[in-house]
Write a structure and sequence with these properties.
Layout lengths: L6 E6 L5 E6 L13 H13 L8 E8 L2 E6 L6 H5 L7 H5 L1
Antiparallel strand pairs: 1-2, 2-4, 3-4
Length: about 100
């Protein structure tokens, strides 16, 4: 499966307890805001906290730096990247409005 346009690289921890994602620089949302690590954290956490949570394996999401986010897992889940983002991401500013 090809990588999503927003993802430059992804690495899993040897013990399968986390995924570290490096985001492409320069990717923008439809409203012109940056698709950076804070936006990724916001989207992933919103999905994980939602009542219809299909990301039950996500324990927490951390911003490592401007273009890197770390997803901490409760248990191994090889579908996290597929299930968490797909085409469902949005600017946190657009989401609130």
């Amino acid at each position: 499966m090809p990588s999503p346009i927003w993802l430059q690289a992804g690495n899993g921890a040897a013990d399968y307890t986390s995924l570290t994602l490096t985001l492409q620089k320069g990717v923008k949302f439809h409203d012109g805001t940056d698709c950076n690590a804070e936006a990724a954290r916001y989207n992933l956490q919103a999905i994980a906290d939602s009542p219809s949570n299909w990301l039950k394996s996500v324990k927490s999401v951390e911003v490592v730096d401007e273009n890197t986010v770390k997803i901490n897992l409760k248990a191994f889940d090889n579908t996290v990247i597929d299930e968490s983002y797909g085409d469902r991401r949005c600017s946190r500013f657009a989401h609130r409005n």
